[in-house]
């Protein structure tokens, strides 16, 4: 008897390798769980069972995660065999002529991809409620709450136990926000650590990168080892790793200098549960032998970076829409894109070429300032979010003012004031699930390291996981699951 719910992707692959279970049986169980919980969650879309079974029948690559069921985010991870909506009616059922580098590496690991997971249109929101899916994606911990975005469907699917790990991507926190909201581990690697090609040279001026949603640190480690490294013709490369991510898990870093920030980086207060989470984490880190000091990266112009981020992302959204419309040869129709995206496209038209280049320079200057702050520390500790998971609808794309949606008093950057900073700097950053509210909602704790120090960050996260395990914590909706025999 194999208890699917108690095993991470690494352990499941081990069971396949020793013959206790076969890939077809694991796929059966994953699909059974889709049927059991996806009606409530609306997280898994574009099922490709026939493709998955064909790949199993033809023989899976003998990779480290051979036979493990897996899902791709419905944004990026371009693959010939898996059409996509990119979270939008404009792009519905788009097909690709060539596999992306990230997908090719995932396939080589032996994973069994059987569908995609929901994302907001264009990936520009912290909630996953795209019209193309017919309704919002819901959080397994509380169906009235969002799982976050833009990798919200992947987070909901992993938290609910449909798959042990799933693909995501992160341009402003899109792995770490849903990981925090769903009680998962999520790591954004150093800029260019993972491949972007061949469809993209750099996403959002280098701020976007692929990633993974997992229940265990070691699953993220093994996925990163399998996918890291520049692809053919990459415009730049991340600093070389001193060791593999899996090797980094085996050592515990000693006496790290940790800066503790309990407010936003602009000094604004955040929700009491987020403050409680970060103080509890600080106490734990001190007990583990690290040195925690209150500090605020005040020299870094976070507000200016956020405004630049908003302009850059609007331009990226407008480019994707224009390319789609040009390729099909007919104008955009009413209702094909949602109000926030319409507003983003309109805003992009007001961003001049010199303003765009100024925004890129602002982002780079921010990275230099933050790296200067980090010269005195190994890790910057903060909450992951400014508050617990938001209610469904609060960050839906029905809002018609993109700039206000992002930077207004009740906008995205108030709700998520930490994560986008490290997309701008390119530094590695992770969220660990260490705190739950009295209502049972997950609240993540955020850790960022210096540029290129990915393995140091992951080794610290693994040490935290050993000291304060979270794998056993499951949302109510996951109780509908059964073991495979």
Helix content: 25-40%
Task: Kindly give the count of domains.
Answer: 1
Major sheet, described briefly? Answer: 8 strands, mixed
List the secondary-structure elements in sequence, H or E: HHEHEHEHEHEEHHEHEHHHEHHHEEH
Strand content: 5-15%
Characterise the protein shown here:
This protein is an alpha/beta fold. It has one domain: Amidase signature (AS) enzymes, CATH 3.90.1300. The chain is built from 16 helices and eleven strands. The protein has an eight-stranded mixed sheet, sandwiched between helices. Helix 2 (23-41) packs antiparallel against helix 3 (49-58) and helix 10 (302-328) packs across helix 12 (353-374). The longest helix is centred in the middle third of the chain and has 27 residues, at 302-328. The radius of gyration is 21 Å and the shape is globular. The model has no long low-confidence stretch (mean pLDDT 96).
Topology:
Elements: H1 9-17, H2 23-41, E1 44-45, H3 49-58, E2 69-73, H4 101-108, E3 112-117, H5 152-159, E4 165-170, H6 176-182, E5 185-188, E6 209-214, H7 217-227, H8 245-249, E7 257-260, H9 272-287, E8 291-294, H10 302-328, H11 339-348, H12 353-374, E9 379-383, H13 402-407, H14 412-415, H15 420-425, E10 429-436, E11 442-449, H16 454-467
Helix pairs in contact: 2-3, 5-6, 10-11, 10-12
């Amino acid at each position: 008897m194999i208890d699917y719910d108690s095993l991470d992707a690494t352990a499941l692959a081990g069971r396949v390798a020793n013959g206790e279970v076969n890939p077809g049986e694991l796929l059966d169980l994953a699909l059974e769980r889709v049927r059991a919980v996806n009606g409530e969650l609306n997280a898994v879309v574009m099922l490709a069972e026939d493709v998955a079974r064909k790949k199993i029948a033809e023989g899976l690559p003998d990779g480290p995660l051979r036979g493990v069921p897996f899902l791709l985010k419905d944004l990026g991870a371009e693959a010939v065999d898996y059409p996509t909506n990119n979270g939008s009616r404009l792009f519905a059922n788009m097909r690709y002529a060539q596999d992306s580098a990230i997908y090719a590496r995932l396939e080589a690991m032996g994973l069994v991809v059987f569908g995609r997971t929901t994302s907001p249109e264009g990936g520009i929101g912290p909630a996953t409620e795209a019209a193309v899916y017919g309704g919002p994606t819901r959080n397994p911990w509380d169906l009235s709450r969002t799982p976050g975005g833009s990798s919200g469907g992947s987070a909901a699917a992993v938290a609910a136990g449909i798959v042990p790990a799933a693909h995501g991507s992160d341009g402003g926190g899109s792995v770490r926000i849903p990981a925090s909201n769903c009680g998962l581990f999520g790591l954004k690697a150093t800029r260019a650590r993972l491949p972007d090609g061949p469809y993209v040279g750099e996403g959002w001026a280098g701020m976007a990168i692929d990633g993974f949603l997992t229940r265990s640190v070691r699953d993220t480690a093994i996925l990163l080892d399998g996918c890291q490294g520049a692809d053919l013709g990459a415009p730049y490369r991340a600093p070389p790793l001193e060791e593999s991510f899996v090797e980094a898990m085996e050592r515990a870093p000693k006496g790290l200098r940790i800066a503790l920030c309990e407010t936003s980086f602009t000094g604004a207060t955040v929700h009491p549960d987020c403050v409680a989470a970060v103080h509890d984490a600080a106490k734990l880190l001190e007990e583990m032998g690290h040195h925690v000091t209150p500090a605020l990266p005040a020299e870094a112009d976070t507000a200016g970076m956020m405004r630049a981020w908003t302009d850059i992302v609007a331009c990226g959204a407008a480019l994707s829409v224009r390319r789609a419309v040009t390729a099909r040869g007919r104008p955009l129709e009413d209702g094909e894109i949602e109000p926030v995206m319409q507003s983003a496209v309109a805003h992009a038209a007001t961003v001049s070429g010199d303003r765009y280049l100024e925004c890129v320079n602002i982002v780079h200057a921010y990275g230099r300032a933050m790296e200067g702050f980090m010269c005195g520390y190994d890790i910057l500790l903060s909450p992951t979010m400014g508050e617990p998971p938001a209610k469904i609808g609060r960050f839906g794309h029905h809002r018609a003012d993109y700039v206000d949606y992002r930077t207004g008093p009740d906008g995205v950057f108030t709700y998520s004031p930490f994560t986008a900073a490290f997309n701008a700097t390119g530094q590695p950053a992770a969220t660990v699930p260490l705190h739950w509210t009295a209502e049972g909602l997950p609240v993540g704790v955020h850790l960022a390291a210096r540029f290129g120090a990915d393995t140091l960050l992951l080794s610290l996260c693994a040490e935290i996981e050993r000291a304060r395990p979270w794998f056993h914590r499951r949302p109510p909706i996951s109780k509908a699951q059964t073991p495979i025999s």
